[in-house]
Specification:
Rossmann fold, single chain, 40% helix, NAD(P)-bd_dom_sf, globular, two-stranded parallel sheet, EC 1.1.1.37, 78 residues, alpha+beta, malate dehydrogenase
Length: 78
């Protein structure tokens, strides 16, 4: 969604966890949004944020939550 789309670059820049904290973003969405989610993943990778060490984009809750230490959950209507 739009809120998540606005948040992920800020997290990747270090605004949320600090300028010295590397992150691996795990993004989880519903199956109808999978294509858009993969587009966001490609945008993040293309932006080459120095703190961004990886991106997981999935519609599977187990995969999306595996290894996560901090979660920001944003919900809305599809």
């Amino acid at each position: 969604g739009q809120i998540g789309y606005a948040l992920v670059p800020m997290i990747a820049r270090g605004i949320m966890l600090g300028a010295d904290q590397p992150v691996i973003l795990h993004m989880l969405d519903i199956p109808p949004a999978a294509e858009a989610l993969n587009g966001v993943k490609m945008e993040l990778i293309d932006a080459a944020f120095p703190l961004l060490k990886g991106v997981v984009a999935t519609t599977d809750a187990v995969e999306g939550c595996t290894g996560v230490n901090v979660a920001v959950m944003v919900g809305g209507f599809p």
